[in-house]
Amino acid sequence: MLHIHTESVDSATHTETLFTHLECPACGLTYSADVVRTVCEDVNCLSSLFARYDLSSGFSKESLKGRAATMWRYKEFLPVVETENIVTLGEGFTPIIPLLNLKHMAGSNEVLWKDEAGNPTGSFKARGIGAAVSKAKELGITTIVTPTAGNAGGALAAFAARAGIKAVVYMPKLTPQVFKDECRLYGAELIEVDGNISDCGKLANEQATANGWFQVSTLKEPYRLEGKKTMGYEIAEQLNWQLPDVILYPTGGGTGLIGIWKAFDEMEQLGWIGNERPRMVAVQSESCNGIVQAFHGEQVSSAFVDGGFTIANGLRVPKPYADKIILKVLRDSEGTALSVPDAQMSEALKEIARNEGMLIAPEGAALWQAFKYLKATGWIKEQEQVLLLNTGSGYKYLENIEIS
Ligand SMILES: *Cc1c(COP(=O)(O)O)cnc(C)c1O
Ligand SMILES: [Zn+2]
After folding, report:
1. Would you put residue 263 in left (φ > 0), alpha (ψ -120 to 50) or beta?
2. ∠213-217-222 over CA atoms, to 5°?
3. Is it the case that residue 25 has pLDDT exceeding 70?
4. What is the per-residue pLDDT across 178-226, written as a single tens digit (0 to 9) for each?
5. What is the pLDDT of residues 102-133, one digit of tens each?
6. From 281, 363, 401, mutation site for ligand 1 pocket: most ligand atoms within 8 A of C-beta
7. 90 lines ligand 1 (CB under 6 A)
8. pLDDT at 4
9. Which residue's CA is the closest to the ligand 1 atom numbered 5?
10. 132 lines ligand 1 (CB under 6 A)
């Protein structure tokens, strides 16, 4: 499928968004959306907040036809009110690419990659950050800060540059150089932290509180989720409104997994799809697999797990803020969770590169390994259609990949 960057938004003043308010999915409290919000304000709750829309309007999926090939084609279900506040670099509407030369390894299963590598700044973080920066601009925010394992920092730096907002990024020192260089090139202030993303999060929080900056940490800000959910809309639209049987997702903070699931709910309420759902699979790095442990240990939340460095830096999230929601999605979908060691990710990355011509991120490569395992154990059944999300470009990770 072509990924054409045409005029990204139409010229109307209002986006005609159907966005109405924010809601806490845990305790049900609702919040107005015309001021800056973070998480649920009930101190016993503190859940991530979800954007809610008027889904009873009868908005038809036929109206999408002919719209620009970016995530803003779903603008009715994104939170920006004024068109001039949309900050876009053409993110979204990425291609779905079927497995070709490795098809024999998939047997009767159809395996599809949704390839996010072509997004601005080389990862699907452009979707979440694009939505968050746009809404931040609409709410008058002038300085925005995030802790990051790498890709979110670059995306924030780029979208903030375009929006004319100052960006401050906290990133672990052990991240490949290119992730740092891109932040600086886009004009962000980059602080390298001797530690993991949780340490970055603590520092970002202290400085944000002291200086009055707005934080867009994963799922402590409501709109990154909205950008990432557009993957769910695209999967449905690109597969002609017939969802796959299984979706594998490389899980760090879980935004994409939760977002895709939220999109399916919204589309069902819109009458665009039925009530059938894919089984959702969280794939993690063996060194940082708190969700996998909690899922199989029948826990409702995850413990802090950090086994140190992984080449899949996007997966080094010791305790996702929305761990409970991630685990609930896995269970509601009758999915599962598993982890992959670095050496296997590296091998899978090379296998896909050599045979399929795609240089995918180690996070994406983990899914290919997970697919082979789930197929071998029979968890993935004959004939099932399986979608793997390659969340980023492998080009940014090469300093940690041994070329042999
Ligand atoms: C951030 C990131 C992830 C994890 O995404 P979450 O939505 O936080 O789970 C996976 N892959 C890549 C390439 C990333 O940058
Ligand atoms: Zn709440």
Report:
1. alpha
2. 95
3. yes
4. 999 999 999 999 999 999 999 999 999 999 999 999 999 999 999 999 9
5. 999 999 999 999 999 999 999 999 999 999 99
6. 363
7. no
8. 54
9. 252
10. no
**Ligand 1 nearest atom to the CA of residue 256, by list position:** 7
Token pair in block for residue 3: 């990924």
- Does residue 367's CB lie within 6 angstroms of at least one atom of ligand 1? no
Beta bridge partners, 22, equal: 31, 51
| Ligand 1: residue whose CA is nearest its atom 4 | 252
From the CB of 310, is ligand 1 less than 6 Å away? Answer: no
Question: Which tokens in the block code for residue 311?
Answer: 């080449």
Task: Give dist(CA 143, CA 328) in Å, integer.
Answer: 34
Which amino acid is present at 396?
Answer: K
Name the nearest CA neighbour of 360 among 3, 285, 352, 253.
352
- Please name the amino acid found at residue 160: A
The mean per-residue pLDDT over the stretch 7-14 comes to: 62
pLDDT at 283 over 80: yes
Q: Specify whether the CB–CB gap between 319 and 199 falls below 8 A.
A: no
Q: Is the CB of 391 under 6 A from ligand 1?
A: yes
